[in-house]
Automatic annotation (TrEMBL):
Taxon lineage: Bacteria, Bacillati, Bacillota, Bacilli, Lactobacillales
Organism of provenance: Secundilactobacillus oryzae JCM 18671
Protein name listed in UniProt: Uncharacterized protein
Length: 103
C-alpha cells in the first residue's frame, strides 16, 4: 500500500487524518500568533507546513505497519487492510490522537 493509498483508506474509514491536520494547524496558528508581526507566516505557509506534516505522519504510520507485517501481507492492498482490521489499527490511532498535543 502506498502512502497515498493509506491516506485515502484512513480518510475513508476514520477521522484520523482530519484530526491530525486540524490539531497541527491549530498548533501552527498558536505559534504564529506569538510571532512578531513582521515574522508571521502567511496562511498559505501554514497550510503547506500542515500538509507536509500530514504526509510525514502517514509515512510514519506506513513504515510502522510495514515493519510489523509479514512480507506477503505487504504485497497487496487487501493484505494491508486485513492487517489493520485484525489489529484494530484505526481504533488505536484514534485513541492516540486524542492524547496528542504539540509543544
Amino acid at each position: 500500500m502506498t502512502t497515498f493509498e493509506l491516506e485515502e483508506y484512513l480518510e475513508a474509514n476514520s477521522q484520523i487524518v482530519d484530526t491530525f491536520r486540524d490539531k497541527y494547524a491549530a498548533f501552527l496558528n498558536e505559534q504564529n500568533a506569538d510571532r512578531p508581526t513582521n515574522k508571521k507566516w502567511s496562511s498559505l505557509r501554514i497550510k503547506n507546513e500542515t500538509s507536509s506534516a500530514v504526509i510525514k505522519f502517514i509515512s510514519n504510520i506506513q513504515a510502522k505497519l510495514s515493519s510489523a507485517m509479514k512480507p506477503r501481507q505487504q504485497k497487496s492492498y487487501d493484505g494491508w487492510v486485513d492487517y489493520m482490521e485484525r489489529n484494530e489499527t484505526i481504533d488505536s490511532l484514534e485513541e492516540s490522537l486524542m492524547d496528542l498535543d504539540f509543544v
